[in-house]
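We store chain and fold; thus.
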Amino acid sequence: MVGVRDVFIKKGIQRMLIDRFLEKELRNAGYAGVEIMKTPLGTRITIYAERPGLVIGRRGMNIRMLAERLQKDFGIENPQIDVIPVEKPELNAKIMALRIARALERGVKFRRAAFIALRQIMEAGARGAEIVISGKLTSERARYEKYTAGVLFKSGQPREECVDEAVTYALLKPGVYGVKVKIVLPRRHPDDIEIRKVEIAEEGSGEQHGETKS
């Protein structure tokens, strides 16, 4: 008998595999994530992307292909795909990681790719960012370089609520490079201190001091 936990684990694995499939197929479209929801008519698949037009394709060709693959390879029942553009791609860790990876694959030097992405993230309003690129960067020995700006939360509630994180990979001649991006989103977090101005009433009439006039 299949337990409830096994069902959740199976769904989690399926969602992870679908996410990896879409990231590979929609790499050039700036794939940012997916939401999967079961409906009475089938399964609603919501894809978030930097360039929705590339996801949809000419006359919806890519959408139909994706629906067929999701149904055939992953057993998704009657997939209905929606594509939603990401308002600020520079504040999405997955999009920025893919941007860096594509730049590396085009031959851009890793330091230049990292600094450009870091500047774009901070100019978009992020409170902080961290980019880590690992691999055979300058020699046959694998290592990593880290680039940071602003404030970065490493643990606790602020990290859980305010930090967007993503990892992707780029295949180059020296080997596979790893790209990890963390972005501190421009939102209020529990450690923020807000100073409010308190207005003190000026000394006025006798009534304000409890005095009465005869």
